[in-house]
Amino acid sequence: GGDTHPAQPHHRFCDLIARCGRAGAQKVSSTIIRSAGFARQLKVQWDVIAALMIREVNVKYGHSNLGFFWIIAEPMILTFLVSVVWSVTSHGSSISTIGVPLFILTGYSGLVLWRHLVGRSLSILRLRAELLYHNNIKPIDIIVATYFLEIVSVFTAFSCSYVPLVIVGFLPAPTDPLLLIGGWLMLGLFGMSVGILLAAMSEMTDLLEKFVQPIIYVTLPLTGVFSLIEWMPPRARQVLSYSPVANAIEMFRAGAFPEDAVLHYDPLYVVKVSLILVAIGIPLMVIAQKHVSH
């Protein structure tokens, strides 16, 4: 009988190790299953967003290429006309190191993206309410698909204007293509975050639609489209440094402008502001969905 007592703690310890091992295996297995389920759900949502983008292309441009052709032609025509006017009036002397055409093209393209993202956010769910009857489609899917299409299509239009002009030698090649793309994505991110907030609020009240467009025009100087931050007086420079749009456009231009051009931008600041707006906009979107469903 004396030999059995010392062995009991050992058996209990082995049983404890075995139970821990089984629990750990079950936990790992459960984690793998959840990860696989999340991956499948992520793929489903991506397929939904891709399908919505294709639908949006058909709605926006139809089966005619004229609409998209005009998006490409418009910045080229504007760049050419303004460059001619500025050259005749010597108005572009202050940006001679950058070049008037490049300054106009980068500014105009950024402004178009900003206006499109904000403008298309109004009543975006109400206009597509029939899509919400599908179980897999959520309000955020509609918004992300619409904004992704805008970000891609406007950048494609910019590229179709920019690349040929670079090839023929009318514009210089970008000094940092990744920085250029990064700045564009920063502008798209902030525009999307503002759009989510406005989309939710516009479903709750019709008054917002009457104020958004005037506000866009009034705040145009804060976009940094018409001047570099470096060229502004110190007080105006400080104000523009707090504008996420101006930061994103400066970053976008930094990738295209010569290396000696002085530009001011903070991508981390743009990301922080965007995440704050998204954190406010998503809960409002849940409330807005109830308004749409009724």
Task: Describe the protein's architecture and organization.
This protein is mostly helical and about 290 residues long. The protein has nine helices and no strands. It has helices at about 5-60, 65-90, 100-120, 140-165, 175-205, 210-220, 235-240, 245-255, 265-294. The mean pLDDT is about 80.
Percent helix: over 70%
Quaternary organisation of the protein chains: single chain
Rg from alpha-carbon coordinates: 26 Å
* Secondary-structure element series: HHHHHHHHH
- Give the termini separation: 78 Å
Catalogue the unreliable spans: none
Number of helices in the DSSP assignment: 9
Q: What composes the largest sheet?
A: none
Determine the mean pLDDT: 78
| Content-based structural category | mainly alpha
The total count of strands amounts to: 0
- Anisotropy-based shape: globular
Q: Proportion of β residues?
A: under 5%
Topology overview:
Layout lengths: L3 H58 L4 H24 L10 H20 L19 H29 L9 H28 L3 H11 L15 H7 L3 H13 L10 H27 L1
Helix pairs in contact: 1-4, 2-3, 2-4, 3-4, 3-5, 3-8, 4-5, 5-8, 5-9, 8-9
Keywords:
294 residues, mainly alpha, 0% strand, globular, 74% helix
Question: TL;DR?
Answer:
With 294 residues, this protein is mostly helical. It is built from nine helices and no strands.
